[in-house]
Amino acid sequence: MAVVVGVVGPEDVVQRVIATGPASGATLQPLAYRHESETVAVVSQSRVDALLFTGVVPYTIATEAGVVDRPAMYVSYDGATLLRALVELLRLGHNVTQFSIDTLRRSEVLETLIEAKLPTDQIQVLPYRPGLNSDDIVAFHRGARAKHDTKIAISCLGSAFHLLETEMPSVRLVPSRYSIRSTLQALVLTTSGRHIGDAQVALGVIDLPEPDDALAADLTTLGGSLALLPDGRHLVVTTRGLLEQATEQFTRMPLLDHLAARHSTAYVGFGVGRTAAEAEALARRAVGRAGSIGAVAGVVSMSDDIEIVIEPTGDHAAVPRGAESLPLLARRVGLNPQTLSRMRELTATRPDGLTTQDVADHLAVQLRTARRVLKRLERAGLAVPTATQQHGRTGRPPTIYALNL
User: Which InterPro entries does the annotation name (predicted)?
Assistant: First the structure.
């Protein structure tokens, strides 16, 4: 089956990438925007297997917003791209010894100029960093012209280029065909490898207090088979890909709601392994963990020592069996006790809820790590999104979480 790759970027660069042609085993779908501020919406609404960003700016915007949930890469603007632009400028009679350029690394720019035997002492470079936007880039080029008398502005960001071209001689860099092809090929290989991972065997063990004739119907979304084990429990055979779909990427398990409506207790454990034997061992461990959490609970265990706790939603949420100690709670959630202790400290100072940024600041970690912490707490039923922060902000409003620690 062909991998569907969404190409994210400004319309003209997206068309250039598509015109380059897809890699073997892939089809390309345009996901164009008019301004990079639309990146998050474009990515969130896409239904593709992988994402190819036409530059580091949209890639970083999407990554920081937490919407990159599938294999993704960006096409780099390297020294060869710059050299091709300089040759074209020379052909048109421009002075290429005094220019300003954004996004590329300074070392890469200087190395390219030295190899071309061009002077470097009057070149101004603004390397890309997270948070750098179109206004920052335009201000840099204007400042370079005013302070250093640069003759040409070279930009990798389309929105900045369109503002600059009316004020000064400007060039917009676009990725080379070689960069496009090599990045696309690497992305397709990565995505194909993930699809192979989706085919990993997943075994489930379901422990119920009495027989359940409706269980087979509940498992139709898993597309697998159901068998009765000698100890009275049920064995489910499926694949990781189907399990991810049926549990919405391991965030909720409708099966638990159905079982909670019919039984006083229900424990579901799934194991995902490289072999059937490994998956079965992980499933048995997972169902044992589920039994220690509450009256109704599910756990997914994976071979890389990851355990995801899933509890039922609605009126049948599992009731914990007594107060849990910090180490036990940490093991259930999948965080170390020190992290959980610091989260308790933070919760005490934020009675009205907290955001990902609050967690990142308190734990001194990056935003993506803070998101993972909150996601683990949410999956364990200990963090609930309650609102979004609207006032005094632009862009996507942060989610406010209420924690019960």
Answer: WH-like_DNA-bd_sf (IPR036388), WH_DNA-bd_sf (IPR036390)
